[in-house]
Write a structure and sequence with these properties.
Shape: globular
Bound molecules: 2-phosphoglycolic acid
Largest sheet: 8 strands, parallel, barrel
Distance between the termini: 17 Å
Strand content: 15-25%
Number of helices: 11
CATH architecture: Alpha-Beta Barrel
Number of domains: 1
Amino acid sequence: MTRKMLIAGNWKMNGLQENRTDFQNMIDGISPSAFDLHDVLICPPATLLYTFSKMAKGSGMLVGGEDCHPAASGAHTGDISAAMLADAGADYCIVGHSERRADHKETSALIKEKANAVLQNSMTAIVCVGETLAERKSGNATEVVTQQIRASLPTAATAKNCVIAYEPVWAIGTGVTATIDDIAEMHTAIRKLLHEIGGEALAAARVLYGGSVKPSNAAEIFAIDDVDGGLIGGASLKAEDFNAIVAAAG
Ligand code: PGA
């Protein structure tokens, strides 16, 4: 079965109005055939989402949110609902990024509620999972990721509305990438788990790798059997790097 690759950029808390130029350079620098072959997505901070969705119109570039609140609306000062992101033009929304699990003490149960809200607003959820260095060293990486997936997946998850991003915490923003063997082993385990949870239909979901993906290592990571693209942080901020990563997807 061939799965369409998803190359997704996560801008995190980076990006001002002046960075519209970088986004425009991404749109202009990616070939129409790459936009046809793959899904290409940038998740900017919420302050840029509406502007970026307007800029992306008609280009093939997709935009998404970095997080959302599980409720549709209400007294939640400073939060943003999935409906608001969809209204601003988002096609996707990341949930459960390890920075949110760590900085905001988000639990898998909360992440599942957020993912449910993403689906209810007709967007695709990118559910992030990944073990810490201590968990890997103690031999518990697969167990931790399995538990996170079981508890964080939205109730109505399908291969169409849900993407898993495996991001070992120790590889995020550190320049250290997991080895090809480690990535392959984890992605195979995730695929098997998705099959266990939802049969063939869910096992066809895309599983991305994230953690220090850059132009120099993207091609060999994307060539791994069960890797269906990447979630890219630092290297998604510069058009030159992000476009090279998209090109590495073939
Ligand atoms: P990085 O971040 O590419 O900067 O390591 C990846 C992520 O956090 O999604």
